[in-house]
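From the methods appendix. Each design record in this collection lists the tokenized structure first, followed by the designed amino acid sequence. Records were kept in a plain field format so they could be parsed without special tools. The example shown here is representative of the layout used throughout.

RECORD:
FOLD TOKENS (246 positions):
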């Protein structure tokens, strides 16, 4: 696997629907490129100057929002529509995997739009790699991030039921080996919002944040730099800021 180039796009605080629309546009563009490749006559090589798929990593924060995955259950949402509206919380049914989760200020949300056929066409490998990015980043803060068997995401002390707590949730979608959706890492997140849902549909484990574990707020930009550094290492890629191309 040769080093890939991934376009990094810092979206700031962006509405969930706007970020979702952008992901769908980028995914559709990549899928169209791959569809055109397969229209080549049998035995004919793809021309060297043919358009190629483009990898992206979108990093952002969202206003208050609950999102429910396609396999999620509404009974894991403990607020009705009026109660959410009164609190200024939006709600979306999504086409990602996973159950219910929360996004809000102080949380880095990462949406990799990657053509896995140019990395490794294996969803399990992809999810474990996303987890590895977070685990390595946590190690830089002196925290031992870990996996919980059968539960996607990154945890602290998952082997101790009474202390297990999730710091990063994940849910993805893949079409023609092009990914979308991704991870939500709690940095300075107001964890009280998780009290109105059963996070990821898991009843017996808690949610935490980097700030809670360290005992103080952490600069968001500092964390994003660490995320990007570890993303490059784990995926053997080079991140190029979209601003550098403008």
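DESIGN:
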């Amino acid at each position: 696997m040769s080093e890939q180039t991934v376009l990094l796009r810092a979206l700031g605080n962006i509405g969930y629907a706007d970020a979702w629309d952008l992901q769908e546009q980028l995914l559709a563009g990549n899928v169209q490129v791959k569809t055109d490749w397969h229209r080549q006559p049998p035995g004919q090589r793809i021309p060297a100057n043919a358009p190629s798929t483009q990898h992206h990593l979108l990093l952002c924060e969202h206003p208050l929002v609950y999102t429910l995955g396609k396999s999620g259950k509404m009974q894991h949402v403990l607020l009705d529509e009026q109660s959410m509206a009164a609190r200024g919380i939006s709600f979306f049914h999504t086409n990602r995997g996973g159950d219910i989760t929360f996004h809000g200020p102080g949380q880095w949300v990462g949406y990799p739009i990657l053509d896995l056929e140019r990395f490794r066409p294996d969803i399990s490998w992809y999810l474990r790699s996303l987890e590895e990015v977070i685990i390595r980043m946590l190690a830089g803060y002196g925290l031992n991030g870990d996996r919980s068997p059968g539960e996607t995401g990154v945890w602290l002390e998952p082997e101790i039921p009474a202390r297990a707590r999730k710091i990063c949730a994940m849910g993805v979608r893949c079409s023609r080996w092009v990914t979308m959706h991704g991870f939500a890492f709690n940095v300075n997140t107001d964890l009280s919002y998780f009290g109105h849902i059963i996070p990821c549909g898991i009843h017996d484990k808690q949610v935490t944040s980097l700030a809670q574990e360290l005992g103080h707020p952490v600069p968001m930009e500092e964390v994003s730099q660490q995320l990007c550094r570890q993303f490059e290492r784990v995926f053997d890629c080079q991140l190029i800021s979209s601003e550098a191309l403008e």
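APPENDIX NOTE: The chain has one domain: 4-35+51-245.
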